[in-house]
Amino acid sequence: MEIIILPTADDVARTAADAIEEQVRRGPSVLGLATGSTPLGTYQELIGRHRTGGLSFAQAQAFLLDEYVGLPAAYPQSYHSVIRDEFTISVDFAPDAVHGLDGMAEDPEAEAARYEGLIAAAGGVDIQILGIGTDGHVGFNEPMSSLGSRTRIKTLTRQTRQDNARFFDSADDVPDHVLTQGLGTIREARHLLLLAMGEAKAEAIAAAVEGPVAAICPASALQLHPHVSVLVDEAAASRLAHREYYTDTFGRKPAWQGL
C-alpha cells in the first residue's frame, strides 16, 4: 500500500487521472468506476484529456461499484444515471461498454451472481477507483462487512444514508438497500486507487491505512492487496501518524516506477 499525500484535491484528481490514462493508453482496459463526490474531479480531468489530448475510451469497458435497490436506471439518483451524466456521456465508450447492477432486479441474488460473471468474463478489473466513507466503508460495504464478501445486497447504515442525503430531497428518500461489489470482489482488481479529500475523511483514512485489518473499518481490507495507491490531500492526511515517512519515500521514488 502506497500512501501519497498531495497538496490539494485538484492534485489528487490529476494524479488519479494520470494512472487511469496510463492504463487506457496501453490498450483494451477494464475500469472500475465509483460514484459520489470524491471521483468527480478525476472524471473532469479525464473528460478534458479526451477532448483536448486525444485520450480515447473506445477500447475500454467499465463496471460500476454499486447501485441503489428500487431505483430504475433512468432515475436521476441511480448510479447508472450519475456515472452517465458525470463521466461516460462525455467520452467515447462503445455502446454497452459501461456495466451496472440492476437496482430493479426481481432477484437481487441472481443479479449479483450475473454481475460477478460479467466481471470475470471481461478478464477482471484493471484499475478500480474507490472513495471512502466517514465510517470507513468502500463501495457500500458497511462496517462489519465480511472482508471476503462478494457482490450482494446490503442494508445501509443510518450514517451512510445521512451522508448521501445531499443527493436526494431528504435522508428519508435515500433507499435502505443497495447492491454492491463485495470487499473480496473489489480486491480482485489489479490496481486500486483509493481517493480521499478533506478533514472529514481524515479519521477513516488513518484507520484504513494505519489501523488493524478489521471489519469495523472495511477499507482496512485493502491492506491485503498487493497494489493499492492511496491518494489524499493534506486535510485527509492530517491524522496519519507516519506522514513524514510517506512523503519522504514518495519524493525519492524512481520516476520510471509510476503508480
From TrEMBL:
<feature type="active site" description="For ring-opening step">
    <location>
        <position position="142"/>
    </location>
</feature>
<protein>
    <recommendedName>
        <fullName>Glucosamine-6-phosphate deaminase</fullName>
        <ecNumber>3.5.99.6</ecNumber>
    </recommendedName>
</protein>
<keyword id="KW-0378">Hydrolase</keyword>
<comment type="similarity">
    <text>Belongs to the glucosamine/galactosamine-6-phosphate isomerase family. NagB subfamily.</text>
</comment>
<dbReference type="GO" id="GO:0004342">
    <property type="term" value="F:glucosamine-6-phosphate deaminase activity"/>
</dbReference>
<dbReference type="InterPro" id="IPR004547">
    <property type="entry name" value="Glucosamine6P_isomerase"/>
</dbReference>
<comment type="function">
    <text>Catalyzes the reversible isomerization-deamination of glucosamine 6-phosphate (GlcN6P) to form fructose 6-phosphate (Fru6P) and ammonium ion.</text>
</comment>
<dbReference type="InterPro" id="IPR006148">
    <property type="entry name" value="Glc/Gal-6P_isomerase"/>
</dbReference>
<keyword id="KW-0119">Carbohydrate metabolism</keyword>
<feature type="site" description="Part of the allosteric site">
    <location>
        <position position="152"/>
    </location>
</feature>
<feature type="active site" description="Proton acceptor; for enolization step">
    <location>
        <position position="66"/>
    </location>
</feature>
<dbReference type="GO" id="GO:0006046">
    <property type="term" value="P:N-acetylglucosamine catabolic process"/>
</dbReference>
<comment type="pathway">
    <text>Amino-sugar metabolism; N-acetylneuraminate degradation; D-fructose 6-phosphate from N-acetylneuraminate: step 5/5.</text>
</comment>
<dbReference type="GO" id="GO:0005975">
    <property type="term" value="P:carbohydrate metabolic process"/>
</dbReference>
<feature type="site" description="Part of the allosteric site">
    <location>
        <position position="155"/>
    </location>
</feature>
<dbReference type="InterPro" id="IPR037171">
    <property type="entry name" value="NagB/RpiA_transferase-like"/>
</dbReference>
<dbReference type="GO" id="GO:0019262">
    <property type="term" value="P:N-acetylneuraminate catabolic process"/>
</dbReference>
<feature type="domain" description="Glucosamine/galactosamine-6-phosphate isomerase">
    <location>
        <begin position="9"/>
        <end position="223"/>
    </location>
</feature>
<feature type="site" description="Part of the allosteric site">
    <location>
        <position position="154"/>
    </location>
</feature>
<dbReference type="GO" id="GO:0042802">
    <property type="term" value="F:identical protein binding"/>
</dbReference>
<dbReference type="Pfam" id="PF01182">
    <property type="entry name" value="Glucosamine_iso"/>
</dbReference>
<feature type="active site" description="Proton acceptor; for ring-opening step">
    <location>
        <position position="137"/>
    </location>
</feature>
<keyword id="KW-0021">Allosteric enzyme</keyword>
<dbReference type="GO" id="GO:0006043">
    <property type="term" value="P:glucosamine catabolic process"/>
</dbReference>
<feature type="active site" description="For ring-opening step">
    <location>
        <position position="135"/>
    </location>
</feature>
<dbReference type="InterPro" id="IPR018321">
    <property type="entry name" value="Glucosamine6P_isomerase_CS"/>
</dbReference>
<dbReference type="GO" id="GO:0005737">
    <property type="term" value="C:cytoplasm"/>
</dbReference>
<feature type="site" description="Part of the allosteric site">
    <location>
        <position position="145"/>
    </location>
</feature>
